[in-house]
Amino acid sequence: CSWGMRAAAIALACAGLLALPRSSAFSPSLAPNARPLTSLASALHSAVRPHGLARRGLELGSGVAGGSGGLRMVHPLAEATLSAASGLLPNPIVRDVVCSGTASVLAFFWVAFWILLARTGAVESKVSRKVVHCGSGPLFLLVWPLYSQTAWTPLVAGLVPLVNAVRLFKAGTASEEGGKDAGLVNALSRSGQSNEVLQGPFVYTLVLLFSTLLGWGSMPATIAAIAAICQMAGGDGMADLVGRKFGTVKWPWSRNKSVIGTVAFFLAAFLSMSGEIAWYHAFGLLEVTATGAASRVALISAACAIVELVPLYKFFGIFGDDNLSVPITAATLAYFLF
Fold first, then answer.
1. What single string gives the DSSP state of each residue in 167-221?
2. pTM of the model
3. In the predicted model, what is the mean pLDDT of the chain?
4. How far is it between the farthest Cα atoms of the chain?
């Protein structure tokens, strides 16, 4: 079935990306007594090339983080936040479960709010759909630094998009229209048909899931996950919102895409990805700063904006979906550029 093929396509793309060779410059180097940031992704890398990737460590209470570039300062507010989290929830598993539970609750209310607006007619369903699209992924990324950064963290964090994927699958395969998931369908689909949520929205949650499972353990993997989510969510979502409202000038080779929409894609993707990099840098999880990464983020955003213009679905069917082609392009470029 189509949703199964979409899941398989994302899984194969992510697995292939992880298998790509990288420079030995990213050799393990930890601060003394630092806690390593490990993951399913780094475990897979280590199985193939034990010395090919950096590991991150964060020594709470010291204001420094360890990585391949040595010691890095952690922003005082970030350090205070992490110290408070560690003090309140000293057990890493409990801390991760609380983070995932909180993220799930916030995600539920975020979607429920826009469902309510769409149901009451305050906003059009296509607007609510794209606002949810723009905000869900980047907001979830903001929670990642609060997790314990241990080996099981990606699995616990992955429960958040997994729950949403199951919820969408349940709504999309409902046998009767107008059921209890009708509000979710109306808010996330263009036509109001339940099977539509198994297309873009379902692929979106699968991208979040695989990005969460594979985006921990090294700077390239983390930035690849950030790039995939921000370009797909912020860029693609804002392009549709702005393009529908102001897109009078169309591209000659893609009449359903507007010039202003492409500009909006670039700006939204660039700003959201830069903001996430700055956030992760403040928590000591990334060595690169937002300003230091600006040129590479701009290149990734421009490339993804171009990919979004090409009607790949005409040639590749489900494999050409924007929610698949854009994040794969973003993650691949980020993985090599960083």
1. HHHHHHT-SSTTSTTHHHHHHH-SS--GGGGGTHHHHHHHHHHHHHHHS-SSHHH
2. 0.76
3. 77
4. 59
